[in-house]
Design goal:
Aspartate Aminotransferase, domain 1, single chain, two-stranded parallel ribbon, alpha/beta, 7-stranded mixed sheet
Length: 386
C-alpha cells in the first residue's frame, strides 16, 4: 500500500497555483533566483557536492556561488559549514536532498529568518521524500526539481519550480510569462520521442553503451543532452536557456507523476535489499533518519579504487554510477569558472573521489539487484568500511 505521506509529497509538485514547469531543473532554479532578486554583488551558499549546472544558474544572475562542505555520513550539506559562511552579502542558502535523503537544516532556518535570507531546496533527487512528515519542497521559501533522464520522474528534460511564499509565487508567474518562451515544436516532438524510447527500451545491460553514447552526443550537440559543452565550460548564460517545459508535454508529465508512488516503493524495496545485504560486510553506508521518508534515487557506497571497479562493471555490463564524481559534477567541467577552488570542501573532495552508486530504478528486478551484489561481493576488498 502506498504511504499517504508519499502521495501528499508528490501532490505539491502538481499544484498549478504554486508550480511552474521549465525545460530543465537548472532553469527552474534560475527563475527562482531571479524571482527573489538575486543579482550582482549577492552570494548564494550551496553544498559543494552538486552538479555544475547549479552554481552555473547562480553565475548567470551575476551573483557568486559560495560552497560549503558536506556531512561525511549523509552526503548532504553540513549545516554548521553553511552557517559559518553567511555574510552580509548572502542572499540565499541552498540545501540539497542528496540521493533522495532529506537534508538536516540545523540552524540554517533560524539564520535565514533572522537575517532575511531565502532558503532554497534542491529536490532534484527527492520528489516524494519528507522530513518528519513534512514534504521536501515545503521546508524553505522555494524549491526546484529535475525531470532529466536519470531522475525519479523521467520526461526527457524538464524541471519544476515551487514556492509556498505568495510573493515569490507572484514574481515567478510574472517572470515565467514575460521572460520564458515555449520550446519549438521540433524540440517538443524530439523530446517526446526520446522519452518514449527511454521508458520502453532502456535496459540495465545497455547502461554503459547508452551512457557513453548519450554523453558524447550531448556534448557535441548531436542530441538534446542534459548539458552542452558550453554549460560545462563557460559561465555565460547559453542561448535558448530560458524556456518553459512545453504545454504539449504537460499531460504526459502529470500521467508520470501519478505513477510515481509505485515507482518510489520499488526503489525503497531495492535499496533495502542492498542495505540489508551490504550492512553485513561493514561497508560505509549513507546514514538514514528513521523519522524521514527517503526516496532512494541511487544507493551510494565508497570504494578505494573506483576506476578499476567501474572498468570491471563495464566489462560485465553491471550498471553502476559514479555521480557525483567531483565537487562540481561532472569532473570534465571547468570548476574554477563557476567559483569552486580546490581544497575548499575537503570532505566533498574525498567523497567525490571514492563514491559509486547502485541503481534502484523500475527496471532493476530482484534478480538484477542480486547480480549487482554478487559482483560487489567478489570485490569486497575495494570498499571503504565504517
Amino acid at each position: 500500500m502506498v504511504n499517504q505521506t508519499i502521495k501528499n509529497s508528490i501532490d505539491i509538485w502538481v499544484n498549478p497555483a504554486k508550480t511552474f514547469t521549465f525545460i530543465k531543473g537548472r532553469v527552474a532554479l534560475y527563475a527562482i533566483l531571479r524571482s527573489i532578486g538575486v543579482g550582482p554583488g549577492d552570494e548564494v551558499l550551496i553544498p559543494g557536492f552538486t552538479c555544475v549546472v547549479v552554481p552555473a544558474a547562480i553565475c548567470y544572475t551575476g551573483a557568486k556561488p559560495i560552497f560549503y562542505d558536506i556531512n561525511p555520513n549523509t552526503y548532504n550539506g553540513e549545516p554548521k559549514e553553511a552557517c559559518n559562511k553567511v555574510t552580509k552579502k548572502t542572499k540565499a542558502i541552498m540545501i540539497q536532498h542528496t540521493f533522495g535523503v532529506p537534508a538536516d537544516c540545523g540552524d540554517i532556518l533560524d539564520i535565514c529568518q533572522k537575517n532575511g535570507i531565502y532558503l532554497i531546496e534542491d529536490c532534484a533527487h527527492a520528489i516524494g521524500a519528507s522530513k518528519n512528515t513534512q514534504p521536501v519542497g515545503t521546508i524553505g521559501d522555494a524549491a526546484f526539481c529535475s525531470l532529466q533522464w536519470s531522475k525519479l520522474v523521467t520526461s526527457g528534460l524538464g524541471g519544476i519550480a515551487l514556492s509556498q511564499n505568495s510573493n515569490i509565487t507572484a514574481r515567478l508567474k510574472e517572470i515565467y510569462i514575460e521572460q520564458f518562451k515555449e520550446p519549438s515544436i521540433y524540440k517538443t516532438t524530439y523530446l517526446r520521442i526520446l522519452s518514449h524510447f527511454y521508458r520502453n527500451y532502456f535496459d540495465s545491460k545497455l547502461y554503459w553503451p547508452a551512457q557513453k553514447t548519450y554523453r558524447w552526443a550531448g556534448c557535441h550537440g548531436l542530441i538534446q543532452g542534459s548539458s552542452s559543452r558550453q554549460e560545462l565550460q563557460n559561465s555565460v548564460i547559453p542561448k535558448n536557456y530560458c524556456e518553459r517545459f512545453g504545454k504539449a508535454r504537460l499531460k504526459s508529465l502529470y500521467r508520470m507523476l501519478k505513477t510515481l508512488p509505485e515507482n518510489l516503493l520499488h526503489r525503497q524495496r531495492i535499496a533495502n535489499l542492498y542495505r540489508n545485504h551490504l550492512i553485513e560486510y561493514g561497508y560505509k553506508l549513507q546514514h538514514l533518519d528513521r523519522n524521514n521518508i527517503n526516496v532512494p534515487l541511487r544507493f551510494p557506497l565508497l570504494v578505494k579504487h573506483r576506476d578499476s571497479l567501474l572498468r570491471a562493471a563495464r566489462k560485465r555490463r553491471i550498471e553502476i554510477g559514479d555521480w557525483f564524481n567531483a565537487p562540481l559534477h561532472p569532473n570534465s567541467c571547468n570548476a574554477k569558472r563557476f567559483g569552486y577552488r580546490k581544497g575548499e570542501c575537503p570532505i566533498t573532495e574525498f567523497t567525490a573521489r571514492h563514491i559509486i552508486n547502485l541503481p534502484t530504478h523500475i527496471n532493476i528486478s530482484d534478480k538484477v539487484a542480486f547480480r549487482i551484489m554478487e559482483f560487489l561481493n567478489e570485490r569486497e576488498h575495494l570498499f571503504i568500511r565504517e
